[in-house]
Design goal:
By secondary structure, the protein is mainly α. It is built from 48 helices and no strands. Among the domains are: 168 residues, Leucine-rich Repeat Variant (Alpha Horseshoe), CATH 1.25.10.10; 104 residues, no CATH class. The relative contact order is 0.03. Its main location: cytoplasm.
Amino acid sequence: MSDKVIADLCLEFEKKLRVPVEPEKYNEALDEIFMNDIEGIENIGSKQVETVLSRAYQAHSSSRVYLHELILKDIPKSLNLFESLSIQTVHILIGSFETANDTIPLIKELKDRIHYGEDTHPKYLLSCIVQSLNKYSYAWDQIEFIVRDVCLRMGEPDFKSIGLIIFTLLQESFEEQFYKKFTNIIDSLILEAEADVGNDPLSLIVEIFTELYPALTNICSELFLGSELDKLFKEKAMHNNEDEFIKKLLKLLSVACIDENVRNFIAENYLDMLERSLKLEQFKTYSAVVLIKTWSFTKLKGVTIGDLGTTLTDNFLMNLKIDDGQSLNDECVMCIEGLAYLTLKKQMKMTLRYHEEFSTTIINLLKKQDTPVDDSVKYGILVILGNISTYPMDVTMDGAMDPQALQDLKTYSELKSPKKRDANDVIENNEDVTRYIQKYILKTELLSYLRTKLAEVSPGSRQQIIRIIYNLTRARENISASVEQGCVVTVIEYLANKKDKKEPTRLLALRSLTKMLTLSDPKLIFNKYSRLTAIPFLYELLQTPSLSAENPLSTDELITTQDSYEALCALTNLASTEDSNADDVCKQVVTDVNYWSIIENLILDDNILVQRATLELIANLMCYPLSIAAKIFNFENPQSLRNFNILVKLLELNDVAAQRAVAAIFANISSSVPLIAQTLLDKKELIEKATGIFAEQIDDEALRQRLFVFFFSLFELLPSKEEDSRKFDSLTRNTNLKMTLESLMKRDDIEPEYLEAIPAMLSKFYVK
């Protein structure tokens, strides 16, 4: 059969014609496709066939209907055709049907092929089941067959990966029916195992549980704990000497530790067996991981945390060399998983910080380009790096900030002995952590590489990257290199991703951002993005009701006073540079109603650090007075007048640093905007309070300088005629202020420019 029709149609697609292709041409091409056998499809070219099928499915309702008719004419042949193509065509095959009942002939064909196991495309068949379950609503009796058929083939790779998805969908839609069917199947397999009949049913149960435990934890745990399985497992492991079964069982025990009840059960009933198998070369990796995940180190008789760590690091490096670094076998993967847990222990962190070969190897694996490692392994390595790079006594990282699995395990260990320290407890120091970070993370430019992969990795890995950045930003000496490697961009892109908005790691990202923005020059940071991009994220750390609906962290009690303080410091730094970008920051903060409302509230915050930082921010905003002046110095506006009066009273704060900030606000505005300074000439309360502080705290150089600039700016605006100047007698007849200025003339620590200005100021007083 000629493939000219298909070839011509594909050429038309490539021309991108404005006139749409007529349905008849699609139908003619579809006829040609469905008249061919598999060999004919290969001759035409699967890519061209997929293109025609996709266009026919999408372009016209009539060609879509015709495609469906061709499929129905011969379901087995149609399925042969589709499964010879890529997995992307599943949605075309399933989507061509209108209702669940329409798909029943296809479902029956899928059932037969899955059941008999002769079809060589099981992944395609299972993908059709997944697509059907997602798209249509079935009665239980129409699809219950899939439970048994998938269970019986769970040892096959495709069934392991897709079977879990299918069972999750079935449990969501048919919870009771699925539970009954699944438990009946397991019970039948147990009976076969007890009668010693069937095709190794016990191994099959182990494989089923191992794959399903993460999603069907409760069902698997109920069956594991409530049946004769434990006895059967032990008998087969101890008496049959089947290495492969023992490895599978150890993998199951490892996975089952996700459930606390099962974890306790394993610790009570399997520790002796696990310790014995730890001495056997073929089982030591698997046994070590299970022992670690039971988190029952005090119950171990002849094994220490150090022994377990050494076993895993040595076996990891040995197996990697056996594989010539090209791939990671099961033992390598298990070693990474075990160390991800074990590095929660201080002893293991300290050991690995000085294990150069291991650290270099895992960094290289993360950056490997030719044969990239599986994302689950990347996640494990990132967890290890996150644990090792955590500074001691960083309470932020304790408990809630760990990934969920690690959190559960850590919480479990703390419940056992909440106040009891290990007998051989060790003390970490910050210098070791900094040395490790700089040698293995910063100097290898790992963060630069990970920044380019942020969109590609799993959500869990993305969170661990943020956690590592957070760890780095806990020490000032790491900030510069972190910024150079693009960590600000990494954090901003993570925060901007809506998928990550509810993650607890978000708080770590925000804290990382505040540190980097506070301790870096904004001019060097913002190239890809405007510094305005960071402002909404900083405001997430400023807790006020006005933004609660938009703030992903508003319902949490995780935001601390320190977080708010550091966010204000970061905002201040963004507004500190002498360029238009800083002016833009000022405008954004002042003109956004919610943002400015928060600042107004924080001026009177109970915490002195937060209040001081808020006042310092306002003082910096005064460097660009056109935006902010109306918020404080528009005396015809009640809210503005209120803000002004509050600032006047805050001049007398007990916190000197906060006083300096308030004084800077008045100094900046009076020296930069003469029109506003003119209105301050008759503000008696302001002048009286400023005079008192100027006189009483004259030894504080920073405060003295700010108040001097304020008074000098006012005196500059006094009228030259005496009768006009008398209107401002709070200045011109201010004996205390005159005496203070005169005393400055006698000091030897006054800047020359101030000394030169004082005589002109004194000449405008009308008091002796």
